[in-house]
Amino acid sequence: MLTNLSGDNEAFIVDAIARGAFRSRDEVIDAGVAMLRRHEQLLDYLKEGRRQLDEGEYVEFDQEGLKQFFEQLKQKARCAAKGA
């Protein structure tokens, strides 16, 4: 597959290969596409979080409630580690 990239992007690819960060042009492009996919996924998470906030789908904690919540998480993690 042929791709037409800007001179700056092409130079970046050549440099990345030259310094050993990637083995081929295709590997650089695949890494870039993977980063774009991750970026899109993170944006989707943020949009969902915003929706949840807007619709009141959250729980508020005071200091003591937050402390208890984290203690419960730690206990669950300890139990899961014992079972693993």
Walk me through what this model shows.
The structure is a single chain. The longest helix is centred in the middle third of the chain and has 30 residues, at 25-54. The chain has three helices and no strands. It is mostly helical and 84 residues long. Helix content is 75%, strand content 0%.
List keywords for this structure.
about 80 residues; 3 helices; about 75% helix
Q: Helical proportion?
A: over 70%
Largest β sheet strand count, sense and barrel closure = none
- Principal-axes shape call: elongated
Q: Can you count the helices?
A: 3
Order of H and E elements: HHH
Q: Structural class of the helix and strand makeup?
A: mainly alpha
Low-confidence stretches: none
How large is the share of residues in beta strands?
under 5%
Annotation, overall tally of beta strands? 0
List the helices and strands and how they pair.
Elements: H1 7-18, H2 25-54, H3 63-83
Short description:
By secondary structure, this protein is an all-alpha fold. It has three helices and no strands.
